[in-house]
Structures are given as structure tokens and as C-alpha cells.
Write a structure and sequence with these properties.
disordered C terminus; disordered N terminus; 14 helices; about 350 residues; mainly alpha; binds zinc ion
């Protein structure tokens, strides 16, 4: 069987999507609950907390966007740090790899890397990020509408978020692919790839050029195209969603309740983690369709999927009583299966499941 088979039939894709949703179990319920609360409750909260009059639109935009960005980044990473330290079986069963976390695998190497990571995060977030939007502060302008009377409806938040996701995914895919071009990879993107077995703090650890063009601008492109059609509150919601998505994509766990996995043909934490492990393929962020259309789903990712499925099938067919480790390993494999890309029928014409 060919390991890399991006040209899938519609039937294969629909079949995979169905299995992906069903296998989430309770995770599907919580992911749906998060999503409903996000789109239906948060816009209601805006009507309670949004100021009725904003005097300085430029400084309001500048500080609200910056403070929210920093707060979400710090909160997400603090929450993940607690989860890493707890090593609670409830969370550990969602771990992508059986191998130890990088700080346990090689503490000396990790100490060096975390110092480099924090230093570069400081440059990106404390110097570059404010500089990117300082012009709005100086001109006292907000690129979005911001008044209380035009707070967005639920419908508006949903379609503008979906549009921003599609534009971000498209532009991120191409910028990311460009950054992997042999001639420039070593100069810019190699830094982000220093984190091989990813953890959440790696999400914004990037060369400043990549941070500006590959992260901030790709994320802001959709909202900037919408301009005054978008309310500042929707932009802030989108920012929280995007920062949390990249934390989720780098956290090293494949949580079944992740609301991002509800998206059709969604990417996953494992999908991006595999990109870091292999340095090639799986370039997109929110979805996988760009990688499928352009044939850049990692070849070995498919091989890995095949091997894991074979292993799970053997364990199930053997009917032998499994050891505690065996059960743990199988559960991890099943969780992994839920995020795999779809595969074609095998040589015997049977479905791979
Ligand atoms: Zn990369
Ligand atoms: Zn990454």
C-alpha cells in the first residue's frame, strides 16, 4: 500500500470524518458545549461589560488587544504547566507520545532551550507585538468598529470567525511552506523547530520575522480584510480563539474535548506535533484540506497511522488479557486514531479499522 495517498475519494473522507466524531465519545459532548457557550454566551457578555462610550479609540484598541493577547498566552501556558506537573492519569492518557516530556528526557538541554524560548518570547511579545500596532495608538484609530450600539450578533460572530479561520489557514499554510524552503529554513523557521516534542510554550517561540509574517499577520489578515464590518469585540474573541488553537496544537496532548476538532477536516495537536518530529509536511493550522489538495500530508505520518492501527487491531483480535501497560498503550492508540488522517482501502479491499 502506498504510504502517502492524498487523493482520497469523497467516500473515504466522509467515512473518516464520521468515525472521527463518533470516537470522541463524551469528548464530543464537551467540545460541543464549549463551542455553544463560546458563540452564544460570550456575545451576550459583551452587552454587560462593553463601555457605552469610548473616548480614545486608538489606545482602547491598542491596550485591549495587547493585554488580552498577553493574558491568554500566560493563562494557557500556566494551565498547561499545571497539567504537565500533575501527571494525572486523566490527562496523561491524552498524551501524544509515550516518551518523557523534554524536561525529563534531557534536563540540561531543556534548561538551555527554555531560557532561549523565554528570551525570544520577550522580544516577540514585549517589543515586536506592541510595535506592530503602535500606529493605531499614535493615529488614535481603531481598524474595527467599536461602539456599544453596533455590538455583533451571534450570527455575525460565527460567520466572521469562520471566514477568519479559512483565511488564516490558507495564508498560514503558504507562509509555513515558504519558511520550509531549503534556502531560508535554516535562517528563520529552524528556531521554531528546536522544540521537537512540542509543549505549549513553543507555540509563539519563533524568529521575529516568522512571528510577524507567519503568525501575527496571517492571524490578522481576515479581520483586516473585514475592517469596519468587524466589531472590535469579535476581533478580541477571534484572537483568544487563535492563541488557544496554537497552544492546543503544540501542547503535546490530543484532548478529545478540544472544540477545534469539531471543524470538518480539522487539523490536530498530533498533526502539528508530527510536523515538528519530522520537519516536513502537515503545514496547515486549523484544517487539513490544504495539505490534502497540495499533497503535503507527511508521508511517514500515514505509515505511522497504518502501524498503530495494525497494532490496535492485533490487540483486539488476540483476545488475550491485557496488562495494565497494554491497556494504557491501547487507550493512547485509540485516542491517536481519533485524530488520524483518513486512509484508503487496503489491498484486500477492507476498510482499515
Ligand atoms: Zn514548520
Ligand atoms: Zn509549531
Amino acid at each position: 500500500m502506498k504510504a502517502n495517498e492524498p487523493e482520497l475519494s469523497l467516500e473515504d473522507i466522509l467515512d473518516y470524518e464520521k468515525k472521527r466524531y463518533v470516537k470522541k465519545g463524551f469528548g464530543l459532548f464537551f467540545a460541543s458545549l464549549f463551542t455553544l457557550c463560546w458563540f452564544f454566551l460570550v456575545p451576550q457578555i459583551a452587552t454587560l461589560i462593553w463601555p457605552s462610550k469610548i473616548e480614545n479609540e486608538g489606545s482602547f484598541f491598542f491596550f485591549s488587544a495587547y493585554i488580552l493577547h498577553e493574558s491568554v498566552f500566560i493563562f494557557n501556558n500556566f494551565a498547561m504547566w499545571v497539567i504537565y506537573k500533575l501527571e494525572c492519569p486523566f490527562f496523561e492518557r491524552y498524551k501524544i507520545h509515550d516518551k518523557a516530556w523534554p524536561w525529563k528526557e534531557d534536563p540540561e538541554k531543556w534548561n538551555k532551550l527554555i531560557k532561549e524560548t523565554i528570551s525570544l518570547l520577550f522580544v516577540n511579545q514585549v517589543i515586536i507585538l506592541p510595535l506592530m500596532s503602535i500606529v493605531y495608538y499614535l493615529k488614535n484609530e481603531c481598524p474595527f468598529r467599536f461602539d456599544f450600539d453596533s455590538l455583533p450578533s451571534v450570527f455575525e460572530v460565527i460567520w466572521q470567525t469562520v471566514l477568519s479561520m479559512i483565511i488564516e489557514d490558507f495564508s498560514f499554510y503558504w507562509s509555513h511552506r515558504f519558511l520550509h524552503w531549503d534556502k531560508i529554513y535554516a535562517h528563520i523557521h529552524k528556531i521554531h523547530h528546536k522544540h521537537i516534542n512540542t509543549v505549549s510554550i513553543a507555540s509563539e517561540y519563533a524568529h521575529p520575522v516568522e512571528f510577524v509574517f507567519g503568525n501575527v499577520l496571517t492571524s490578522s489578515l481576515g479581520p483586516l480584510i473585514l475592517g469596519k464590518k468587524m466589531h472590535l469585540f469579535t476581533y478580541l474573541m477571534w484572537m483568544v480563539l487563535r492563541i488557544s488553537e496554537t497552544t492546543d496544537g503544540h501542547c503535546g496532548y490530543e484532548f478529545s474535548w478540544s472544540p477545534y476538532r469539531l471543524l470538518p477536516m480539522s487539523g490536530s495537536s498530533e498533526y502539528h506535533n508530527y510536523h515538528h518530529l519530522s520537519f516536513k509536511g502537515n503545514y496547515a493550522s486549523f484544517f487539513t484540506y490544504m495539505d490534502r489538495i497540495f499533497g503535503t500530508v507527511n508521508v511517514r505520518y500515514h505509515e505511522f497511522v497504518e502501524k498503530k492501527k495494525e497494532y490496535v487491531r492485533k490487540v483486539r483480535k488476540s483476545g488475550k488479557e491485557e496488562t495494565k501497560e497494554g491497556v494504557e498503550s491501547r487507550l493512547i492508540s485509540e485516542k491517536r486514531e481519533s485524530s488520524y488522517a483518513p486512509v484508503k482501502k487496503n489491498n484486500e479491499g477492507n476498510k482499515e479499522d
